Amino acid sequence: MGLLEIHQLEKGFFTPEGHHQKILDIRSFSMNSGQQLGLRGQSGSGKTTFLHMIAGIIQPDAGQILLDGHPMHALSEARRDQVRASTVGYIFQTFNLLAGFTCLENVHLGMRFGSQQNPERAVSLLEQVGLQDRMHYRPSQLSVGQQQRVAIARALANSPRLVLADEPTGNLDPSLAEEALSLIRTLCTENNAALLLVSHDQGILDQFQPCLDLREINRAGQGGGS
Amino acid sequence: MSLLGMVLRSLRQHLLSTVITSCSIALAGGLILSVWTIKDQANQAFVGVHSGFDAVLGIRSSKLQLVLNAIFHVEASPGNLAWQDYLDIREHPGVSQALPIAVGDNYRGYRLVGTLPDILSQVAYREASTYQVAPGGRWMDPQRREAVLGSFAAQQLGLKVGDTFHPYHGLLFDESKQHAETYVVVGELEPSNSPADRVIWIPLAGLQKMSGHDPKTATDISAVLIKLNQPQAGFRMDMMINKQGDRLTMAWPVDQIMAQLFTKIGWFDKVLTLVAYLVAVVAAGGILAGLYNTMEERRRDIAILRSLGARRRVIFGTVVMESSLIAFFGSILSLVIHTAIFIVAAKMIRQQTGVVLNLWQWHPSLIWTPIGMTLIGTFAGCIPAFKAYRTPVAENLTPLS
């Protein structure tokens, strides 16, 4: 069995007019441990919704999601939180760092709710992303590129089996984007974490083999929501 | 990072709001503590003060006025008794000790009380405690113009043994009404924490015959302090003097008369307690409103924590812990506010009555009020915590693709 197995996944939303609109209808999708996969998705294609369902943040309307053997579609919310805390690392386009906490504390929080609490690992990760001299800075005191590196370190803090990256370079200029992508891929490889990266940036996606297009696996086609 | 660490960080992030709401809790707690402790201690202290006597005999008047005048030295004398009245009561078989006192003069606002010094030195104003003259002094000679000062009066007036002073007529200080007589301070009483501390004791004859006083009343006295042989004598004398007679009043028993006073003014501390409770409710509302309003700006932070795997109940718990800590800090501060209020109130009460309140005396409210205020804060945090609990994650992890 692969790390991630998805079957007959469906998700829709009600429009303001009250109509149910299906935005995701994925017959089958899978990833293996340690695999790095790029997923092309245009704005509004439902790619963030797809990642949220894998992470257990939202529930599908139908279908199955097996993440590291956990049936995310059937688990209670609290159990999904637990699986997410110990199995998934999430990198967001806008970094989503907590402004009131230092870099080191943000990385600590990445492992706070999981099974391991290893302060040395947090320090080590920040050293790996080149922020050993910025550990006690707050996010607002860092450049955009540095903030994304903190977010990458945080995503790997809990030694996840799967890292989900949602447009992780979307807010970075091209040179920083290359650097961030390289860092994400290297750290995922070093930490034996699979990587599912969604983006609409062809330059980023070209570096992935294989690279899937969400439109090809999503029978609902172009959706109207996220 | 522990949950407590996260909560403390959040409190620091919202420092102004934290300080203001903690202060409001502190004010409420301080008021509640002060009302309860001062009320109960004052009640005990005033009811417990009898200066070693069971009853006060005076001219026909209010019993409370007699007690306040003769025991607490705070009220005007209702009128004079003839010396014969003193002799008669002294010979009553139910009376073991009778001490005549005369008032009517002061020195810079501190009341002069004329009495028989020998008897005063034999009175146990509290169980096993008699008035003692501090080293370097002695009791006054009834034949001389000598004075023994209560400790508080001596401290406030700055008089010491060997100093002299001229009394002033009346119980209120009026510089134009100075008597010609010169009195010498021959002693200072050891502190007794009783109304006697704020009195200047002089020989009875000295006050009766002070220049300017009516010679016709030179043998009159203001009241007689009475110690009974046994309680039953009080019933008989009460019947004889108060019910069958119409010229004199015997205030007996002294502690019950003071207790009646506190019963009469009980509505006042009920109002104070009610005000304190209202302040507590407003303070709890402040915590609720303060936290509830910040929940809107914290939606994203909550969503981020949830995306990292924090369960809803953890989010709920952190908000409740935050409100509990605000209330806890306020409760600790309330002890400081209570201390400040108590010190000021105790000083005023001592200045006005000589009754001493003890800041360090244990009162159950000292533990229950901080606990209660913290619990109120905890409950107040439940509503914003529930709002945090319900925060949707996906919608607040911006931006959405």
Q: What is the name of the CATH class of chain A? A: Alpha Beta
Tell me the quaternary state.
heterodimer
What CATH architecture of chain A do you see?
A: 3-Layer(aba) Sandwich
Strand residue percentage of chain A: 15-25%
What's the Cα radius of gyration of chain B?
Answer: 30 Å
Describe this structure in words.
The complex is a heterodimer of chains A (226) and B (401). In chain A, helix 6 links the parallel strand 7 and strand 8. By secondary structure, chain A is α/β, with parallel strands linked by helices. The two termini of chain A are 29 Å apart. Helices cover 34% and strands 24% of the residues of chain A. Chain B has 401 residues and is α+β, with helices and mostly antiparallel strands. Chain B folds into two domains: 176 residues, no CATH class; 198 residues, no CATH class. Chain B is built from 14 helices and twelve strands. In chain B, strand 4 and strand 5 form a beta hairpin. At the A-B interface, helix 1, helix 2 and helix 3 of A face helix 1, helix 11 and helix 12 of B.
How is the secondary structure organized here?
The complex is a heterodimer of chains A (226) and B (401).
Chain A lengths: L3 E11 L5 E12 L4 E5 L6 H9 L6 E6 L2 E2 L5 H11 E4 L11 H10 L6 H10 L15 H12 L6 E5 L7 H17 L3 E6 L2 H4 L5 E3 H4 L9
Parallel strand pairs in A: 3-8, 3-9, 6-7, 7-8
Antiparallel strand pairs in A: 1-2, 1-4, 4-5
Chain B lengths: L2 H11 L1 H34 L6 E5 L3 H8 L12 H8 L4 E13 L2 E6 L1 H6 L1 E3 L2 E2 L15 E4 L1 H7 L6 E2 L2 E2 L13 E6 L11 E4 H5 L14 E6 L2 H14 L3 E4 L2 H11 L1 H32 L1 H9 L4 H42 L11 H16 L1 H8 L12
Helix pairs in contact in B: 1-2, 1-12, 2-9, 2-10, 2-12, 2-13, 10-12, 10-13, 10-14, 12-13, 12-14
